[in-house]
Amino acid sequence: MQSNMKPKGLTLTMIFEAESANYGESVGNVASLKKISRNKGEQYTYISRQAIRYNIVEQLGEDLAEVKAEGSGDKKVIQFDPKSTIKDYPEIDFFGYMKTEKGNQSKIRTAKVRLSNAISLEPFKGDLDFLTNKGLADRLNENMNIAQSEIHHSYYKYTLTVDLEQIGVDEKEDINIDDSEKSRRVGKLLDTVAMLYRDIRGRREDLKPIFAVGGVYDVKNPIFHNVIDVNKNKVIVSQIKGILFDNIKNDTKIGLIEGKFDNDEQIKEELNTVIMPELFRYLKDKVNEYYESN
């Protein structure tokens, strides 16, 4: 069943502030953060898109799609149960699936909600935390175990893009859910992102945006992903203004939580910002309008 809706995309690029939120493989007794290199070899930590997806699904408040294990031993693969469909599970409606059955061709649904990695906007300087289990060792009068852990507190940015006319539609399984349910699902996704958090190593990191820019557009490009940056605790306003073509500007809304950036007044004046709840209300209204008009 094909979608007959007008092509529309929602994109939202967000900045949040967090600390040490995604670790990779440890090196010896040192827990290593996930990192990439840029510029002249400077290192930037990141939270993978898979990690963000995990937290969104975890906090979405919808039933989790059923899964099953295929194969045995080292070749055992855990995947979505072929009986799980997008009709019942927003998780696979948003992020896609691959279903394989012995003797049948695989079914693949690509993601209709895509995420970028959340990359730090300040370089990692090699800071380390020193850890022991003194509290436990003292109880047995034994020597402590020692470990180290990389730490990095920074602003991070990531982008959410939603292929609106593809939400709730699965041509492979002949499914097209009601438009009201499509609107409800995207609205709930936005509510989740607005208050997203991440539990890691005894901490709960706050991933809710403190700056965000986006809208619902005729194009499906993550428009603002490559123009959002922070330098010396200031959002670089000129880069954002540089991408505001008329057809983009008219559909764009920018949210700001005041008190974090040193150029709050410039951001408000030149980008005509709103408070964060107003931005998310605007996006949900635009999503509702889109589905009601089709």
Helix-strand blueprint:
Blueprint: E1 9-19, E2 30-31, E3 35-38, E4 42-47, H1 49-59, E5 67-70, E6 77-80, H2 90-95, E7 97-99, E8 107-109, E9 113-115, E10 118-120, E11 128-132, H3 134-140, E12 146-150, E13 153-163, E14 169-170, E15 175-176, H4 179-194, E16 197-200, E17 203-206, E18 211-217, E19 230-231, E20 234-235, H5 237-241, H6 246-249, E21 252-256, H7 264-271, H8 276-292
Parallel strand pairs: 2-12
Antiparallel strand pairs: 1-13, 1-18, 3-4, 4-10, 5-6, 7-8, 9-13, 10-13, 11-12, 14-15, 16-17, 18-21, 19-20
GO biological process, one term: defense response to virus
Pfam family, one: DevR
Keywords: Antiviral defense
Gist?
The protein has 294 residues and is α+β, with helices and mostly antiparallel strands. Helix content is 25%, strand content 31%. It is built from eight helices and 21 strands.
Features:
single chain; 294 residues; eight-stranded antiparallel beta sheet; 21 strands
Counted beta strands: 21
Strand count, sense and closure of the main sheet?
8 strands, antiparallel
Shape: flat
Rounded to the nearest angstrom, the radius of gyration is 22 Å
Q: What is the subunit organization of this protein?
A: single chain
Helix-strand string? EEEEHEEHEEEEEHEEEEHEEEEEHHEHH
As a percent range, the share of helical residues equals: 25-40%
Low confidence ranges: none
Structural class: alpha+beta
Q: Quick check: average pLDDT?
A: 95
Distance linking N and C termini: 16 Å
The percent range for strand residues is 25-35%
Total of domains: 1
Q: Tally the helices: what do you get?
A: 8
